[in-house]
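no rush on this but wanted to send it before i forget. what follows is a protein written twice so to speak, once as letters and once as structure tokens for the fold. mainly i need to know what kind of three dimensional shape the backbone takes. thanks a lot i owe you, the record is right below.
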Amino acid sequence: MKEEYLLEQKFGKPRPFNVPDGYFEQFEAEIINKFSAEKFAEERPIRRWLRPVTWAACAAIAVVSAFVYFRNANVGTDVVASVHADELSPAYNDNIVDELSDFAMLDNDDLYSLMADE
């Protein structure tokens, strides 16, 4: 602090930036003149036809998306519904019996005895 005081007394306070007299009195008027209303009057033209076109495009995209979704959603069910029970292989039924026996934990002897009772 003492060093700063001594330096200030020896060299004074430097003021590298000076403002001309009356600068702030004319400042507001200069800004208004620089950015006049004529420059801001140039606006983009309003495109009124663009809004309905945008809504129509959104609706078209929604319709096409729904069509594609529902068309693909029904493809899998048509294939399953077209298979008849007669066309299923007997091996499929055997797999079911194997899975049920594993679930019930029955061995072959138990299965033979159950089938013999029927």
Q: What stands out?
A: Residues 2-117 form one domain. The chain has a mean pLDDT of 76.
